[in-house]
Automatic annotation (TrEMBL):
It comes from Gottfriedia endophytica. One of its GO terms (molecular function) is 4-aminobutyrate:2-oxoglutarate transaminase activity. Its cofactor is pyridoxal 5'-phosphate. Keywords: Aminotransferase, Pyridoxal phosphate, Transferase. This is (S)-3-amino-2-methylpropionate transaminase.
């Protein structure tokens, strides 16, 4: 693969000698179930560049699965963590409160959609945020039912798995699952029935949901509907705006709470602080994590004050929830997103990616769909001979990319989509070099597949 590389250098091999030795230890001591998308051992990273233990340099289009909108090791965040660590690492908010928890809770009530009184609980992970949002919704409504959607992903805990729609690798032989969880159909525009317009298909999906409330579970039994405004693991699937608004409206009619799972879509990824704003809805509860604190484990649930106050003291929370290190990191990340206009930058990045692939699409008919919101862009690949999902092609493409210095991930229930989750601080030059690596990798993979067919 011939490229003029300015940022990437994988001359030590992927993995290099030192990395390969560590990976052998990993095989001995870490369970198989802890997956690894890329066979590298990272030593340090800054901005959009990752360096492994062998000195290889990679461009990062994965961002720790959407965790690093503010980039790797932003100086402001690093300094805040250092200063906090010198004074207080942990006291447990339930035992001894600290100001940064309250400051972050206040900030999240200010920047989340909704012009009403809100409160915030801080936790550790996206799955934990989902679990607590469901507990709060059930406590407030006195109902038990929770509705999620096909192709949804809400975590790997028991409840998270139960709400998640992709069986392998997340749910296979892991049951039985949590009761009173239901799945409605979510729109998938690229697979809409032939002959239907987008408007007609949207009507069809809305009517499907209304029928679901007659055939699967009564509205009076449902505490909440949980929805990713843009599905992440499900394939960066962007639903019609009217569908989201209508589901939100149906919830309001029946006293059902609407939980927006913004774990992956939050903090600028889609071109606004939260994707819910672009669908012009004000969720009752919002779950957040991933890019909240530049890689420091922390999550949050923010919602209407009266709903958040439903649980009694001690019924929600956790020992490490909203750690001092996570809180100060999060406050700096939010400040950076605001001051550096990273929401606008997300839109610029997304347009560049889409334009690049639209041009590639004229040459490669395996590129089936180009979609996304802001910098949350997904490219769906099919076998042009039968329009079936091209899982093997995407697997080969991601492998060829990391072998040539670009970290990128797949997504979708068929694993036939590449997804873009690069840091929003990535430069145009870095972005262009990464895109060129994908182009060269695609040329190589497609030519090899054609040779195999012959």
């Amino acid at each position: 693969m011939s490229l003029n590389r300015k940022f990437v250098n994988v001359s030590a091999g992927v993995p290099g000698q030192k990395g390969a030795e560590i990976i052998e230890q990993r095989k001995q001591y870490v369970p198989n179930g802890v997956g690894n998308n890329t066979p590298i051992v990272v030593e340090k990273a800054h901005g959009a560049i990752v360096e492994d233990v062998d000195g290889n340099l990679y461009l990062d289009f994965a961002g720790a699965i959407g965790t690093l909108n503010a980039g790797h090791t932003p100086a402001e965040v690093v300094n805040a963590i250092k200063n906090q660590a010198e004074n207080l690492i942990h006291s447990c908010f339930h035992v001894g409160m600290y100001e940064s928890y309250i400051e972050l809770a206040k900030k999240l009530t200010e920047i989340t959609p909704g012009d009403f009184n809100k409160k915030t609980i801080l936790l550790n992970s996206g799955a934990e945020a989902v679990e607590n949002a469901v507990k709060i919704a059930r406590k407030f409504t006195g109902r038990s039912g929770i509705v999620s959607f096909s192709r949804a992903f809400h975590g790997r805990t028991l409840l998270g798995m139960s709400l998640t729609s992709k069986v392998k690798p997340y749910k296979y032989k892991m049951g039985p699952f949590a009761p009173a969880t239901y799945k409605a159909q979510f729109p998938y525009l690229t697979n809409k029935p032939e002959g239907l317009s987008v408007e007609e298909y949207t009507d069809f999906c809305i009517n499907q949901f209304k029928d679901f409330l007659l055939t699967e579970v009564s509205p009076e039994e449902i505490a909440a509907v949980i929805m990713e405004p843009v599905q992440g693991e499900g394939g960066f699937n962007v639903p019609p705006k009217r569908f989201v608004q209508e589901i939100f409206s149906v919830c309001k009619q029946h006293g059902i709470l609407f939980i927006a799972d913004e774990v992956q879509t939050g903090f600028g990824r889609t071109g606004s602080f939260f994707a819910s704003s672009q669908f012009e809805i004000e969720p009752d509860l919002i779950t957040m994590s991933k890019s909240l604190a530049a890689g420091v484990p922390i999550s949050a649930v923010t919602g209407r004050a009266e709903i958040m106050d439903a649980p009694n003291p001690g019924e929600i929370g956790g020992t490490y929830g909203g750690s001092p290190l996570g809180c100060v990191a999060a406050l700096e990340v939010i400040k950076k997103i605001e001051e550096e206009n990273l929401c606008d930058r997300a839109n610029e990045i997304g347009e560049k990616i889409k334009d690049y692939f639209k041009e590639l699409q004229t040459e490669y008919n395996c590129i089936f769909d180009i979609r996304g919101l802001g910098a949350m862009v997904g490219i769906e690949f099919v076998d042009p001979r039968d329009n079936q999902p091209a899982k093997d092609l995407v697997a080969a493409l991601t492998k060829t990319c990391y072998e040539n210095g670009l970290i990128i991930l797949s997504a979708g229930v068929h694993s036939n989509i590449i997804r873009f989750l690069s840091p929003l601080v990535i430069s145009d030059e870095e972005l262009e070099e990464g895109l060129d690596i994908i182009k060269c990798a695609l040329e190589k993979v497609v030519s090899e597949l054609v040779t195999e067919v012959k």
